[in-house]
Write a structure and sequence with these properties.
Layout: E1 16-20, H1 25-35, E2 40-44, H2 49-54, E3 59-62, E4 88-91, H3 93-101, E5 105-107, E6 113-121, E7 135-142, E8 145-148, E9 154-158, E10 166-169, E11 174-177, H4 189-200, H5 209-224, E12 228-233, H6 237-250, E13 254-260, H7 268-280, E14 283-288, H8 290-297, H9 303-329, E15 333-337, H10 342-347, E16 373-375, H11 383-392, H12 397-400, H13 420-439, E17 451-453, E18 459-463, E19 466-475, E20 478-479, E21 487-488, H14 493-506, E22 510-515
Parallel strand pairs: 1-2, 1-3, 3-4, 4-11, 12-13, 12-15, 13-14, 15-16, 19-22
Antiparallel strand pairs: 5-8, 6-7, 6-9, 9-10, 10-11, 17-19, 18-19, 20-21
The protein binds xanthosine-5'-monophosphate.
């Protein structure tokens, strides 16, 4: 094994901290900062300012939040944050806090604005608004408003309702806007954010996925040393990218395990066995456990029961594979690779490097009592960044661009008992839907599109010369940011028609295709 190469640049020395005042704005801001090629991390607003400053941030962004600065118990901010010489950018609630702490005036005089609002830039050419049109629309969401900027600040934008919608102090490198530049509906929002980062804070856009790969490879080598690691591959993008990174770092001291439970979609197992291995050179053990899973699922139609059985069998098979690998390779197998992502870390209040094994949303629930140390090379990345890293590592597009797919696989997309025949039938229908959606260029618009077989329902049809008693197939295309909420995708009728015709013509025993037009909530994305 070659020695650890130097990390080409130290992008994390350019860290921007995003202080989270609640309501999920912080994650979006952190993503936008990274889209500007600057590394960012989220910290809770309860973190003492001294601790934030100890991280040596190049800049700090104060997020929006649901509170009013006047509310009892509303999150506050130590003024020391503005006196450390670190550039600060306040947004919405962060802006109002900044205004109050620095001696400006914020009042709740009924000057509320929600949604798209015209903004007037009064100082074109300012640090934030250079090259931005004087009139543009921004996204507002506030009940209180700033009526007087703190001393030393220049007011650089206003709205019909709010006299101070942006202020800037170049000398102290402190900036703020009343609106949400991070949301898509704010025109030029990204430009304003980039102006803060590049012009206000003087940070160069150096953070790239190449940095991530170099940095992670070095860190993994350091962590694993000359030991060995195991990684469970699910066919999904997270475990694939995590495995590819670790493979690049430690080569064939990594063994991947792929449990083929027979519940995958058409072609997916082959993609892992052939294309993924070809692209990465990873050492792969495939366990063909279809028989075992189908036997365990026989006669079961309760969704929770199915999930439990699939999870249980998965753990048993994985443990056996792991024992075999240890028997083969010896006790040096000390590490387990996990595709934990940054949102999982933030949402579980983590970020401290403690082991947190994902349960519901991973491979199918890995055993919790494993005596392994975890290697989690994606802990700092958002999903879209993971895809970029995957691309950088040369993984097949089919894997990198893959939509989320549940651990229990097609087992929870058959309403009724899971049998081999039903799985084959669903695999055909699903493959047709996927093919047509891709052909129509809709993949980027759709978060995921479960195709569900209502195996316990008989529908009457007329096909050829006679009546048929087949089963309906449900299409469930949804758009979403994070699967917590979702809306049903408004697919073009021609595409739906094509999918419907092909499925009813080509898939035996299916005589009806229906579209699920329910948002989440109230419906979940999966049917079971
Ligand atoms: P729901 O159906 O809860 O799905 O709206 C939200 C997201 O989670 C996926 N999902 C699962 N993933 N094991 C998993 O690994 C599961 O049991 C499971 N159930 C749902 C679903 O595909 C969607 O992306």
């Amino acid at each position: 094994m070659s020695s650890v190469p130097p990390v080409q640049s130290q992008p994390e020395n350019d860290t921007v901290l995003v202080v989270d005042f609640g309501a999920q704005y912080a994650q979006l801001i952190a993503r936008r900062v990274r889209e500007a090629r600057v590394y960012s991390e989220i910290v809770p607003s309860s973190m003492p300012v001294a601790e934030m400053l100890a991280k040596n941030p190049r800049a700090i962004i104060l997020s929006g939040g649901p509170s009013s600065v006047y509310e009892e118990g509303a999150p506050q901010l130590d003024r020391a944050i503005f006196e450390a010489g670190v550039p600060v950018f306040g947004m919405c609630y962060g802006f109002q806090l900044m205004a109050t702490v620095l001696g400006g005036t914020v009042d709740n005089s009924g000057a509320r604005e929600y949604g798209r609002t015209p903004l007037t830039v009064s100082r074109s050419g300012s640090t934030l608004f250079e090259g931005v049109p004087d009139k543009h629309s921004v996204w507002m969401s506030h009940g209180d408003a700033c009526s007087a900027a703190p001393e030393g600040f220049t007011v650089t934008a206003s709205t019909d309702v709010v006299p101070v919608a942006a202020f800037e102090n170049d000398e102290r490198r402190l900036y703020g806007v009343q609106y949400h530049p991070e949301v898509m509906h704010s025109e030029h929002g990204q430009q304003v954010l980039e102006h803060f980062l590049y012009r206000g804070a003087g940070i160069a856009p150096n953070w790239t996925t190449t940095n991530v790969v170099d940095e992670q490879v070095a860190l993994i080598r350091e962590q694993v040393g000359d030991k060995r690691a195991i990684c469970g591959l699910s066919g999904g993008v997270d475990s694939a990218v995590a495995a590819a990174l670790v493979q690049r770092a430690i080569g064939d001291r990594l063994t991947c395990v792929y449990v083929d439970h027979g519940l995958m979609r058409k072609g997916e197992t082959e993609q892992v066995e052939k294309d993924f291995v070809a692209a990465t050179g990873v050492k792969l053990v495939v366990v063909d456990a279809e028989e075992r899973f189908l036997t365990a699922l026989k006669g079961v139609s309760d969704p929770e029961q199915k999930r439990k059985i699939i999870g249980r069998e998965f753990i048993r098979v994985f443990e056996q594979a792991q024992a075999d690998i240890i028997a083969d390779e010896g006790p040096a197998v000390e590490f387990l690779v996990q595709g934990t992502l940054y949102p999982d870390v933030v949402e579980s209040g983590g970020g401290t490097g403690t082991a947190n094994i994902k349960s519901h949303h991973n491979v199918g629930g890995l055993p919790e009592d494993l005596e392994f140390q975890l290697v989690e090379p994606l802990r700092k990345l958002f999903k879209d960044e993971v895809r970029m890293v995957g691309q950088e590592l040369g993984l097949p597009a089919e894997i990198v661009q893959r939509q989320p797919f549940p651990g229990p696989g097609l087992g929870i997309r058959i309403v009724g008992e899971v049998t081999k025949e039903r799985l084959d039938l669903l695999r055909e229908a699903d493959a047709i839907a996927r093919e047509e959606l891709t052909l129509a260029g809709l993949d980027a618009e759709i978060w995921q599109c479960p195709v569900v077989l209502l195996a316990d329902v008989r529908s009457v049809g007329v096909q050829g010369d006679g009546r048929t008693y087949g089963h309906p197939i449900v299409l469930r295309p949804v758009s979403s940011e994070d699967a917590m909420t979702a809306d049903w995708s408004r697919l073009p009728y021609e595409v739906l028609a094509k999918i419907s015709t092909r499925i009813t013509n080509e898939v035996k025993d299916v005589n009806r295709v229906v579209l699920d037009c329910t948002s989440k909530p109230p419906g979940t994305i999966e049917w079971e």
